[in-house]
Specification:
676 residues, alpha+beta, TIM Barrel, Methyltransferase, Cobalt-precorrin-4 Transmethylase, Domain 2, nine-stranded mixed β-sheet, 18 helices, 23 strands, elongated
Amino acid sequence: MPSNHKAKSVPQQVQHTAVADKPTASKTTSQKRNRARTNTDSPTTAPSNKTWVRADLHVHTPASHDYEEPGVSYLDILRQAERRGVRILAFTDHNTVNGYRAMHEEIKQLEFLERLGRIHPEEQGRLNEYRRLLHKVLVLPGFEFTATFGFHVLGIFPPTMPLRDIERILMDLRVPSSVLDQGLTEAGATSDVLTAYKLIDESGGIVIAAHANSSNGVSMRGFNIGGQTRIAFTQDPHLHAIEFTDLDRGRHSSAQLFSGTRPEYPRRMFAVQGSDAHRLAASKSAPKRLGVGERCTEFLLEEVSFAALRQLLQSRLFDHVRPVFDVLDLPEDPLAAAQRDGPGLKVAFHPTLPRRSARLAATLQAVLCDLCGMANAEGGVIYIGCSANPNERAAGVDAPAQAIQALNEAIAARIQPALKPAITPRRVNATTVIELTVPAGDDAPYMLDGAFYIRDGATTRKATRDEIVAIARRGYVKAAQASTPSAHTPPKPKPQHPPAPKPKPAVPMPPAPKVERAPDNTPSPTPSQAEPAPSATPIEPPLLGAPRTGVQVVAHELRDGLHYFTIRDLRNNSIIRNVTHKSARDLWLYAIQRHLEPLDEAAIPWQGNRAVLSYEMRAGKMRADLAMRDAHGKVVVFYGVTEDGLDEAWRALLPSAPAPAPEVQAAESQLAPEAG
């Protein structure tokens, strides 16, 4: 059970005393005596090859019966640990290791689907995220054992130890199988505290007396177990550390009993603290119920490993262990987030920037195409020197200063109008990656070597004539709005003798497109036919709640026996006119074919004003046709919508992912359940 935790902020003097390497000027006699003992036991100067590692060694998962947020996933727990700056995390569920097992079984299933080539993009994303986080956070298997009289003991083990062996320890401690399966707190007539200490230690684990000063702790107040028993429970040679919940009280903490200065407690003990988290973040209604990483201990280690941690807790280097009272809220690394989501409309990756002139020119061309396409849309970020795979080591960029200079020169010489993206080097492990931040251009459309480009999903291509016109119109409207004075701008005072008015420079309109022949060898309509005035054919704005991917056919007309369609690209709400069967590509062609089919509105499975018309997996990606009713009851259909374009209301309407093929199910059934 979670103990009474304190999430309040502590005075600055207390924080400094607990965390800093050097003592403050004001010290009591007792504090000086403790410092002197510390200096005698271990050196105070930290070796240069060691670093402080933040750890939360007491965390529960949904495998504990009293976990407060059953919908939380193991990925959520790892992400929260990363956010809190935790490098070592121990899963210590009540009398079970099923939480650690469940996480690794999920990973094994995803790796199995990956090997078969049948993994869905969302599943691949989860697997990549597991790999990234487990490379960053060391997760240790463990348990919180309920001993005789209800005392709690933490047992933490190396990740290489088979889970069956850890379960055998629990069974040797007389934990019933039903308790072990369900992660129950109440375990019945189990073994005593000292037996647990001995068995866990001799099995190679770390032994910690859980929340010793609080409920179910071996040193809690109000429970008369006898002085000699209390001494044995806190001085046993198999016990590595004692966990406290009041270390923020400084010299008034319960840990002062075990500083080695009292004759009844001669053995000095490592004092640690953990969150005892039964949820992701602290409860707003009960702030003492902490979340992952919200009460941690830092260890000075040569490496982030179980062996280094156990070796430290078996030593007398007491100044290598310190409680920390700040709760970190680290921002997510933008590169890691981009790799998790993969390349898309606003993100592109170029793994290398070669030195050889021919390959360098090809890579520069691809980078500039992406830059031009993003500037003509909503902007974005281009990473040079790493791939979209977070598990693939970044190749980096040799001589980044020269590479940045070459990029700036190429952008200035080849992209018109002038565009100045931010180009910054960033360290990734032992290499340098170039991050190129592209703004949404104010002077769109931009062109590269005389050609216009746009982003089409995760790729860049040349823009069509109508797309160029749409981009130019957006730029014109933006420029016109910028040149219009605000309603709040006070009028300028008129001079007594105003000078002759100067003609205002007109904002240049995009040139009218030339008359060309359409791809079906029929003469293209003239600009007056192809581009009627907006007042003649108004296009309704997108519906509130419409998807953010896919396309919508907003207009359709028949001219000279040929069908012409007006398409709305839902990614950026651009309007493309005069699309024909021959000029349409991929999704556009699919949309106009479905648009021409009769729609039985009475058969639409409405749920409120939304409906799913069709749903399928195509090329490893979900595609759905969706329908909405506007305020007037008109049915609007969206074609080829992908999952990343849906809000929660749309996601709730979609069916679950399709079941795997029979051969996959048969192969999965042969997987061994053991994760250790």
